[in-house]
Design a protein that fits this description.
Alpha-Beta Plaits, 16 strands, alpha/beta, Rossmann fold, 19% strand, 389 residues, seven-stranded parallel sheet, 13 helices, five-stranded parallel sheet
C-alpha cells in the first residue's frame, strides 16, 4: 500500500486516479511514499526516509527543495504544459487590457456618481481619456518558447500580430508546434528592441533571475508593454520601477504583485491567476498523479525536473530502480552486485541528466534485501528499491 500526502487541495479528478486498494491518499497521511503539492512551501519541511517522490501539480518548483531531494535520490515531478492554455488566455487578456486601457476605464466608470442623463454625459466626456490602439500589425516578442510561449505565439498570429520569438533551448517537440509565421530572433536584445509587446515565458533559474535588468530595459521603446506571467524575480524590480517612473516603459502587466507595484499607475497587477482555472488544476493533477504512479509502481520517469526520463516496458515481475551519481563505473558495480546474487538480467535502461544517473533493471529472479543492501552500499548510489510486482 502506497501512502500519498497532499499538501494543498488537489483536484479530485487527479486524486481519483490512485486506486484505493493500493493507495492511501490525504492531507493527514503520515510517513508518505510520495507528496503532491501545489503552492505549499516545502523548503523547511522535514521529510522521512520513506519518501520516494514529490509531485508538483503545476509547472514551477521554486517551493520545493529540489537540490536536497536530488541528493537523496528523490525525483521531483511537475506538470509542464498542463496549464498552458490557461496562462495563454491570461496573457491575451493582458494584451487587450493594456492596449485598450480597460483597467483605468473601469475604475473611471466605477467612480462616477452621476445618474440618468448626467451619467451618460460623464461617460461620453470621459472616454477620450482612455483611447487605445488595436493589436493587428503590432509586434509581440515572446521570450521562452516552451509549452506556454508556443501557445501564446501561435495565438497572437491569429490576432494578426507580428510575432518574434527567442529561445536557444527550444525542444524539437515545441519547434514542431510553433507556427512557421513566428520569426526567430537572434537574441533577447533583438526582441526588446523590435517589439511593441514583450511577454516572458521562462522558468526561474540562476540564469534567468533578473533576466530583464536595467541594461536591457534601456533597449525597449517608451510605448512598449512588458508582460510577466512567469515569475516575479525574472524582472529586476528596481530597474523596472525606474523605467516606469521615467516613462521609458509604457506598462507592466504581471501576475505577481508587490508593495511597490500594486498601486503604480503604469502597472497592472493580477493575483497570480495564471493557472487558476478548474481545467488547468485538473490537467495538472491528472498529469502528476499518472507520473507518480508510473514511478512508484514501475520506476519509470517522465516530466521530472531533476531526473532523466527513463521508460522500460516491464518484461519481468522482478525490477529494481536505482538513482545514482553520474560517474564512471556505476553501472558495472550495480551489475556486479546482481551477478554476485546469481541474478540474470532480462532488460535494463540507464540514462543520465546533469549529476544524476538512473538505472532500471528487470531480472529473471527476485532480489533479496541482502542484495539490495549490497547495491545501496556502493559509493555513489543515492537510493535503490524493488518495484512492486
Amino acid at each position: 500500500m502506497f501512502r500519498i500526502l497532499t499538501l494543498n487541495n488537489i483536484a479530485a479528478m487527479g486524486l481519483q486516479r490512485f486506486p484505493r486498494d493500493r493507495y492511501t491518499v490525504g492531507p493527514d497521511v503520515a510517513s508518505p511514499d510520495a507528496i503532491i503539492v501545489r503552492s505549499a512551501a516545502m523548503h523547511d519541511m522535514a521529510v522521512g526516509s520513506e519518501l520516494l517522490a514529490v509531485g508538483r501539480a503545476g509547472a514551477g518548483v521554486n517551493n520545493i527543495p529540489v537540490s536536497k531531494l536530488s541528493e537523496r535520490g528523490i525525483p521531483v515531478f511537475n506538470a509542464p504544459g498542463a496549464n498552458a492554455n490557461a496562462v495563454k488566455e491570461l496573457v491575451l487578456a493582458g494584451l487587450f487590457i493594456a492596449a485598450r486601457n480597460l483597467i483605468a476605464a473601469h475604475e473611471y466608470v466605477r467612480g462616477l456618481k452621476e445618474e440618468g442623463e448626467a451619467l451618460s454625459k460623464a461617460v461620453e466626456s470621459g472616454k477620450k481619456r482612455f483611447v487605445g490602439y488595436e493589436l493587428p500589425g503590432r509586434t509581440l516578442g515572446v521570450i521562452g518558447l516552451g509549452a506556454i510561449g508556443v501557445e501564446v505565439a501561435n495565438a497572437a498570429l491569429g490576432l494578426d500580430m507580428k510575432v518574434i520569438g527567442f529561445d536557444p533551448k527550444i525542444t524539437v517537440e515545441r519547434a514542431w508546434q510553433l507556427s512557421a509565421g513566428v520569426s526567430q530572433a537572434n537574441s533577447i536584445e533583438q526582441v526588446l528592441r523590435d517589439s511593441d509587446f514583450i511577454t516572458l515565458h521562462v522558468p526561474l533559474t540562476d540564469a534567468t533571475r533578473r533576466l530583464i535588468n536595467a541594461k536591457r530595459l534601456e533597449l525597449v521603446r517608451p510605448t512598449t508593454v512588458l508582460l510577466n506571467f512567469s515569475r516575479s524575480e525574472i524582472v529586476d524590480e528596481a530597474a523596472l520601477l525606474d523605467a516606469l517612473n521615467r516613462e521609458a516603459l509604457a506598462t507592466y502587466v504581471t501576475d505577481f504583485p508587490s508593495v511597490a507595484l500594486r498601486s503604480h499607475p503604469r502597472a497592472i497587477c493580477l493575483p497570480h491567476l495564471g493557472a487558476s482555472t478548474a481545467e488547468a488544476e485538473e490537467n495538472s493533477a491528472v498529469m502528476v498523479v499518472d507520473d507518480i504512479r508510473q514511478y512508484l509502481e514501475h520506476g519509470n520517469v517522465k516530466h521530472s525536473v531533476n531526473f532523466p526520463e527513463a521508460n522500460l516496458p516491464r518484461s519481468r515481475p522482478s525490477r529494481v530502480a536505482i538513482p545514482h551519481a553520474n560517474m564512471p563505473n556505476m553501472v558495472a558495480q550495480i551489475l556486479s552486485a546482481l551477478a554476485a546474487a546469481n541474478l540474470n538480467i532480462a532488460d535494463m535502461v540507464n540514462h543520465s541528466r546533469d549529476k544524476i544517473s538512473y538505472t532500471i533493471v528487470d531480472l529473471d529472479g527476485p532480489v533479496s534485501q541482502e542484495t539490495l543492501a549490497r547495491i545501496r552500499a556502493i559509493d555513489g548510489i543515492l537510493s535503490a528499491r524493488i518495484c512492486p510486482e
